[in-house]
Amino acid sequence: METVIPSWKLPTVAVAGESGVYPVRRIFCVGRNYAAHAREMGSNPDREPPFFFSKFPDSIASNGSTIAYPPETSNCHYEVELVLAIGREGFRIPAAAAQDHIYGYTVGLDMTRRDLQQAAREQGRPWDVGKNFPQSAPMSAIQPAARIGHPRAGAIWLEVDGERKQEADLKDMIWSPDEVVAHLSRLYTLLPGDLIMTGTPAGVGPVAPGQHLLGHIDGLEDLSIRIGPGPDQ
Ligand code: MN
Question: How many domains does the chain have?
Answer without folding.
Answer: 1
